Amino acid sequence: MKQNTLRIAHITNNYTPFKGGVVQAIKAIVGQQEQQGNSCLIVTLDFAHNDFQEPFHVHRVPALFRCTYAENQIAFPWRVKHNIRRVLTAWKPDVLHVHHPFLLGPAALRLAQQLHIPTVFSFHTIYEEYIHYIKIPAFIGKPITRALVRSFCNELESILVPNSIIKKYVEKHDIKTPITILPNPIGNDILPHVEPRIKKYLTLPLKLLVVSRLVPEKNIEALIDCMRILAVDAHLIIAGYGYWQVSLEQHIKKNFGNTNHPITFCINPSRQKLAELYSWADLFLFASTSDTQGLVIAEAMAHGTPVIALKGPGQEGVIINNYNGFLADSVVHMAALIFRITLNPELYIKMQKGALESSKAYRADTIVKNLNNHYHELIGRYKPKSWYSLFLKSTV
């Protein structure tokens, strides 16, 4: 290890061709880590038999077989421990950064313990809220998921969480590993090229935006309901992709009938297009109640766009009422807050400035510098597990 530089291996079940928040966060982190002189390796799944070009630092664990579920490519890896051991022993990382507690994550953690590599885990997701994807009854799946996550987390050297709300959530589940608050960064590719212009007043129709995967847990139906009761002329763009689009279109028809409605889909937009939409919008809307951070909130704020969101664990750590947006208790409350902003130009100007200022805390250069400092601290205090405890775990 060179002075102040590190060899960092990121282990993730989600990477390209996916485009979700975790993927964008990993890209932003790795890009900035390499820019700061570190060497990075990404170990992930082989979703498409390497049918797309990618940087040399991405290693894909071969898949035994692949399938598609809910319009997502699923890969079942082959000889996980063998393949991860081969790449880690050859590459010799100073630290392992794991992004999921299932599939690749546990195998990588066990190997890291055997190879005496300190391991940090980013708590990206409240995993028990996604049980519906594997068709297990919640009363069975949720406690099993919590137990698996707890067991995994208690084997780590460090856990990273995006805010104090998620820190409290992790602590209440009897997880003893040290927890550090460090949010995911926004990528430089989504930042505006010039300083955003502060809008002095709002014109009708209001330009509203949501950026999201089109899946049930994102609660986009709530935003459609909000548009129906909104007491001011407005146009909502729903930007994203996902299998839930047809259900959302049906919900729009249920609310607005066959008449023209004020809602447009922008499917699978490029990052450049997303940046344009963030700048276009007067207000950004967010309705998920299960996200741990909601990276799109920080992206919108980087363009000076205030955010109106339903209350949830991710947004409560970012949005400050009357400063960079509002947290709403309900759909009716959200509609009332939007209407209030249209009547108060001074408040809108204040919130645009607050959004810009708030977004600075999520810039990649600052967050990754703090992350790398955390790695160094972790390496400095790392104490390998005893061979006896590792032997017992390997026999279980």
Label the CATH architecture of the largest domain.
3-Layer(aba) Sandwich
Number of helices: 13
In the CATH scheme, what's the topology name of the largest domain?
Rossmann fold
Radius of gyration: 22 Å
Low-pLDDT segments: none
Average predicted local confidence, pLDDT:
92
CATH class of the largest domain: Alpha Beta
Summarize the biggest pleated sheet: 7 strands, parallel
Major beta sheet, strand line-up? 3-2-1-6-7-8-9
Description:
The structure is a single chain. The protein is α/β, with parallel strands linked by helices and 396 residues long. It folds into two domains: 7-185 and 363-395, Glycogen Phosphorylase B (Rossmann fold), CATH 3.40.50; 188-361, Glycogen Phosphorylase B (Rossmann fold, 3-Layer(aba) Sandwich), CATH 3.40.50. It is built from 13 helices and 15 strands. The protein has helices at 21-35, 80-91, 104-114, 138-153, 164-171, 220-229, 245-256, 271-280, 295-302, 331-342, 345-359, 364-380, 387-395; strands at residues 7-11, 39-45, 58-61, 63-69, 72-77, 95-98, 119-122, 158-161, 179-181, 206-213, 234-241, 263-267, 283-286, 307-310, 325-328. The strands form three sheets. Strands 3-2-1-6-7-8-9 form a seven-stranded parallel beta sheet, sandwiched between helices. A six-stranded parallel beta sheet has the order 12-11-10-13-14-15, with helices on both faces. Strand 13, helix 9 and strand 14 (307-310) form a beta-alpha-beta unit. It is globular.
